[in-house]
């Protein structure tokens, strides 16, 4: 309410122009899954002169006089004035700290989530107060409509910030809403935050993805 209306109008126009272009939704994501995000970025990067090095593991981040100068992959070196990476690339360099844990359960269903009008996709947020927790629990469901699974199958992802010594018990209220599942894959991961000085090193380390499913907290 405190900003000019003109900032909103181009976004509304883009939304309206996108309706029906690639199906019923104006959004490309999550069609074809998370892979659509880096694919889209790679196209934009190429337009601006960027180069993608596929199937190239990063063996070492190189520094000179305390600043990054590039990365090493095998015998090859790619020079760069600054580097942006997630915590997995610097875990052995003591440039992050663990600030918590997140649990994610990927569930394969043979039915849509009950009491949701048989929708092909949905996001459900279970409020923390209702569950007597300190944080919400998130459910995201996608389907064959998004080209991420076979026909008549659905994929539900349940995520939450770990608050007890029994992470899987914490997400039971969300799992109960699914109406059963054929298979479930569970992972508990550390949440990292950067501790290095980006201005001094030209190394920007992002925070880990938290439990939220709407990317509003992603940096």
Overview of the structural elements:
This protein has 219 residues and is α+β, with helices and mostly antiparallel strands. The protein has 3 domains: 1-52, no CATH class; 55-84, no CATH class; 99-192, Guanine Nucleotide Dissociation Inhibitor, domain 2, CATH 3.30.519. The protein is 19% helix and 31% strand. It has helices at 8-18, 36-47, 128-131, 167-170, 172-177, 198-201; strands spanning 60-64, 67-73, 76-79, 83-85, 96-109, 122-126, 137-143, 154-161, 183-194, 203-205. A hairpin with a 2-residue loop joins strand 2 and strand 3.
Give the tags.
219 residues; alpha+beta; Guanine Nucleotide Dissociation Inhibitor, domain 2; 3 domains; five-stranded antiparallel sheet; three-stranded antiparallel sheet; 10 strands; 31% strand
Structure, briefly:
The protein contains six helices and ten strands. It is α+β, with helices and mostly antiparallel strands and 219 residues long.
Estimate the strand proportion: 25-35%
CATH superfamily of the largest domain: Guanine Nucleotide Dissociation Inhibitor, domain 2
Spatial arrangement of strands, main beta sheet: 6-7-8-5-9
Whole-number count of domains: 3
Order of helices and strands: HHEEEEEEHEEHHEHE
Annotated CATH architecture of the largest domain: 2-Layer Sandwich
Helix content: 10-25%
Mean pLDDT: 92
The profile of the biggest β sheet is:
5 strands, antiparallel
CATH topology of the largest domain: Guanine Nucleotide Dissociation Inhibitor, domain 2
CATH C-level label of the largest domain? Alpha Beta
């Amino acid at each position: 309410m405190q900003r000019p209306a003109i900032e909103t109008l181009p976004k509304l126009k883009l939304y309206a122009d996108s309706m029906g272009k690639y199906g019923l939704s104006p959004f490309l994501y999550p069609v074809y899954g998370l892979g659509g995000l880096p694919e889209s970025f790679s196209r934009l990067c190429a337009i601006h002169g960027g180069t993608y090095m596929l199937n190239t593991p990063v063996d070492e981040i190189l520094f000179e006089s305390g600043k990054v100068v590039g990365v090493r992959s095998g015998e090859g070196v790619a020079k760069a004035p600054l580097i942006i990476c997630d915590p997995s690339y610097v875990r052995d360099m003591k440039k992050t700290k663990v600030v918590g844990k997140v649990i994610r359960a990927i569930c394969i269903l043979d039915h849509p989530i009950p009491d949701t009008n048989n929708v092909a996709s949905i996001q459900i947020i279970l409020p923390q107060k209702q569950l007597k927790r300190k944080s919400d629990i998130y459910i995201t469901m996608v389907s064959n409509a998004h080209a991420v699974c076979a026909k008549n199958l659905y994929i539900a992802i349940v995520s939450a910030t770990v608050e007890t010594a029994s992470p899987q018990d914490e997400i039971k209220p969300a799992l109960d809403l699914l109406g059963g599942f054929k298979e479930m894959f569970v992972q508990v991961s550390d949440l990292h935050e950067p501790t290095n000085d980006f201005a001094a090193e030209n190394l920007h380390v992002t925070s880990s993805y938290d439990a939220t499913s709407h990317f509003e907290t992603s940096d």
